[in-house]
TrEMBL record:
Belongs to the TMEM135 family. It comes from the Eukaryota. InterPro entries: Tmem135, TMEM135_N. This is (apollo) hypothetical protein. Pfam families: TMEM135_C_rich. One of its GO terms (cellular component) is endomembrane system. PANTHER family: TRANSMEMBRANE PROTEIN 135, TRANSMEMBRANE PROTEIN 135-RELATED. Keywords: Membrane, Transmembrane, Transmembrane helix. The lineage of its organism: Eukaryota, Metazoa, Ecdysozoa, Arthropoda, Hexapoda. It comes from Parnassius apollo (Apollo butterfly). Its main location: membrane.
Length: 397
């Protein structure tokens, strides 16, 4: 894959007309804006349909009618957010070229318009903005890691990523248990939310039957551990099967034949993760007769070992970025960061600009999530734009 360096980009593309770079599928800028908008309407709602379906599955419970209505409203808002971000790339580039810049440049062609279009995040409600920026910060870290690896300064491996995930889970679960006592909860999206620290105390309990008065759950410990394990195992397997079957839904026979035992890996990760966490918490509560937020440290660390079943760089980094999210929320609450500062929105704009810039200029190290996101939301128009950039550069080599 050709990397669009600053030197080669400006040599090949600076004097190019709009239609050869920004909208190669049509000559006129107005037609390009209209067609990009229609493509993004289809693509954005298609993308967010899967996102909201996964979020509902992760909740692990049946939604009420009112909750379904609220989810649908959020789905509509997210779709507007996605189509605005996707379609504005063409519009802003053509406007900037006509009004402010006479030539395309390395930083003003993708980085600038995609940073500005990040303001569309205001279509999302405040708590969802926090979730979105957490995801994009996580992806920026992944992009930097991939860049370091490409330059030979870093070497990734499933073992290293598992260890990072174990450390991150230890810190994250500890902060989440402390967060449960907070009146203003930080919006988080994770596999499950640990229960608050139990105030009950009792005598140490031997054996495996029953429960300790200190355990932060109802019912006996074995059922508590097995129920969580089975539930998250099912969610993980279902997510993998949906991701495999939906693209082949028009050919059901081929869709079913595409299923493999390897598709159980995500379920093993999810189920093992919650199962080990709950098991360790219960063992510590039964041993000492009391509960503590600190129990989340060994429980989270050991639970993180389940990540080895289905390693993934963005998931490996997720507990760390979510921990920073909680700490940032506490800084807001304590007045260390003024509430009127739009830190979340500005951070999102910067992250989006950087990641979309990487999608076009540095595809080899761009996170796969961003490539798939732009492909789906723009109904593959992003692929055409990126191909036009590369073809233009190849002609000058």
């Amino acid at each position: 894959m050709v990397e669009a360096s600053k030197h080669w980009f400006e040599k090949a593309c600076s004097n190019a007309p709009c239609n050869t770079l920004i909208h190669p599928w049509t000559q006129k800028c107005t037609d390009a804006t209209a067609s990009m908008l229609m493509s993004c309407i289809r693509g954005s709602y298609k993308f967010y349909a899967m996102v909201y379906l996964i979020q509902i599955l992760m909740k692990g419970k049946k939604l009420s009618k009112q909750e379904m209505i609220e989810q649908f409203k959020l789905y509509l808002k997210s779709g507007i957010f996605g189509l605005t971000v996707g379609s504005s790339f063409v519009t802003l580039n053509c406007i900037f070229r006509a009004l402010f810049f006479s030539k395309f440049s390395y930083y003003t062609t993708v980085l600038l318009p995609c940073t500005v279009s990040g303001l569309a995040v205001y279509f999302e409600p405040p708590y969802r903005r926090v979730l979105v920026v957490n995801l994009f910060v996580n992806l920026v870290f992944e992009y930097w890691l991939r860049t370091l690896e490409m330059k030979g300064w870093l070497r990734r491996s499933p073992g290293k990523e598992t260890f990072i995930f174990m450390l991150g889970s230890a810190a994250f679960f500890y902060l989440m248990r402390l967060e449960r006592e907070n009146t203003k909860r930080t919006p988080l999206f994770w596999f499950f939310t640990p229960p608050r620290v139990s105030k009950e105390v009792g005598e140490p309990v031997k054996g495996i039957k029953g429960r300790s008065p200190a355990c932060p759950h109802k019912g006996n410990c074995i059922n508590y551990v097995l129920k969580g394990t089975a539930q998250l195992f099912g969610v993980g397997c279902l997510m993998t099967m949906l991701r495999t079957i939906i693209p082949r839904i028009l050919t059901p026979t081929k869709a079913l034949k595409s299923l493999r035992l390897s598709h159980l890996k995500l379920g093993l990760f999810f189920g093992g993760y919650i199962g080990i966490y709950r098991l360790v918490i219960c063992l510590l509560c039964r041993t000492y007769g009391k509960d503590s937020a600190l129990y989340a440290v060994p429980a989270g660390f050991l639970a993180g070992a389940a990540f080895r079943a289905s390693p993934s760089t963005p998931i490996a980094l997720a507990p760390l970025t979510s921990s920073f999210q909680i700490l940032g929320s506490w800084a807001y609450q304590k007045g260390m960061i003024p509430e009127h500062w739009p830190v979340v929105e500005l951070l999102y704009c910067l992250c989006q600009g950087l990641l979309f810039h990487a999608r076009v200029m540095h595809e080899d190290v761009c996170p796969r999530y961003i490539i798939n996101l732009m492909h789906t939301v723009t109904s593959s128009k992003a692929d055409e734009i990126q191909a036009a950039f590369i073809q233009r550069i190849l002609r000058t080599l």
